[in-house]
Design a protein that fits this description.
By secondary structure, this protein is mainly α. The protein has one domain. Helix content is about 40%, strand content about 5%. The protein has three helices and four strands. Helix 1 runs antiparallel to helix 2 and helix 2 packs antiparallel against helix 3. The longest helix has 20 residues. The two termini are about 25 Å apart.
Length: about 110
């Protein structure tokens, strides 16, 4: 799913569609709930996002519905520690795909 939504961010609708379909295939045999994750909700979310992406591929829609942006919080049924980790403690900080990934405090190699 992470790769599928990277394709969404890049507006590569065909790549997103392919990976969302693959994700659904992987989750097909999974139980509805597994170790605190609501797998059924995850499958539903992927299905909704896939329908949106298929509309984009077909030209029936102009933009991806941002309400469908993926978040593990929406499918995690357990408790999540709400303590934030300072960015300086993270080994990598995420940038938009066109800026790449860069070690915190470091430079990017090309």
């Amino acid at each position: 799913m992470a790769a599928a939504f990277l394709h969404v961010e890049r507006q590569n609708w065909r790549g997103a569609r392919r990976l969302m379909k693959t994700s659904l295939q992987y989750l097909e045999a999974a139980p509805a709930s597994y170790e605190g994750f609501d797998v059924a909700a995850l499958r539903c979310h992927i299905g909704e996002a896939l329908r949106c992406v298929e509309d984009l591929v077909a030209g029936a829609r102009a933009r991806f519905d941002e309400e469908l942006a993926f978040s593990m919080v929406s499918v995690f049924a357990g408790t999540i520690d709400d303590q934030a980790v300072p960015e300086s403690d993270l080994p990598y900080r995420v940038r938009r795909y066109d800026d790449g990934y860069r070690p915190a405090g470091g430079t990017r190699n090309r």
